[in-house]
Amino acid sequence: MAVFNLSVVAPDRTVFEDQVSSVVLPAVNGYMGIQSNHEPMLVALKPGIINYTDTNSQAHFVSISGGFLEVSGTNVIVLAQDAVRSSEVDLAAAESLLEEARKALRGEASSMTTEEAMHELEKAYARIKVAKLN
């Protein structure tokens, strides 16, 4: 099994860094998979779930709220705006964020713009889904 280095980095910490056999990420134009020896690229990411398989064939999940992916050689780096492992998700906070975004999209009193509410909605859905995968 060919492996490569995956790093998922948020502004405040390194969320994950180790060797993996594959990773699936939420690119702006749809989910994409990366395996060892992938062509170099730089890709914008949207809110969603990163699914990576470790060297023991175990699946793991990280929720991100967007960012960038860089693939070069045997290194894959995700520079995320925000990232949370499935085991770290605060489900109550994610559900609260989802409700606040829904209120803004319904036109109820909110400090969020429509664009911010859409982003927060996607972020909350990803966190809730990844928490349930744990």
Question: What are the defining features of this structure?
Answer:
2 domains, alpha+beta, five-stranded mixed β-barrel, 134 residues, single chain, 26% helix, ATP Synthase, domain 1
Question: How would you describe the oligomerization state of the chains in this entry?
Answer: single chain
End-to-end Cα distance, whole Å, is 25 Å
Biggest beta sheet summary: 5 strands, mixed, barrel
The neighbouring-strand order within the major sheet is: 1-2-4-5-6
- How many β-strand runs? 7
Structure notes:
The chain is α+β, with helices and mostly antiparallel strands. The protein folds into two domains: 4-85, F0F1 ATP synthase delta/epsilon subunit, N-terminal (ATP Synthase, domain 1); 87-133. Helices cover 26% and strands 49% of the residues. It has two helices and seven strands. The protein has helices at 91-105, 114-133; strands at 4-10, 13-27, 30-35, 41-54, 59-72, 75-80, 83-85. The chain has a five-stranded mixed beta barrel with strand order 1-2-4-5-6. Strand 4 and strand 5 form a beta hairpin. Helix 1 (91-105) runs antiparallel to helix 2 (114-133). The longest helix is centred in the C-terminal third of the chain and has 20 residues, at 114-133. The protein is elongated and about 50 Å long. 28% of the residues are buried. The model has no long low-confidence stretch (mean pLDDT 93).
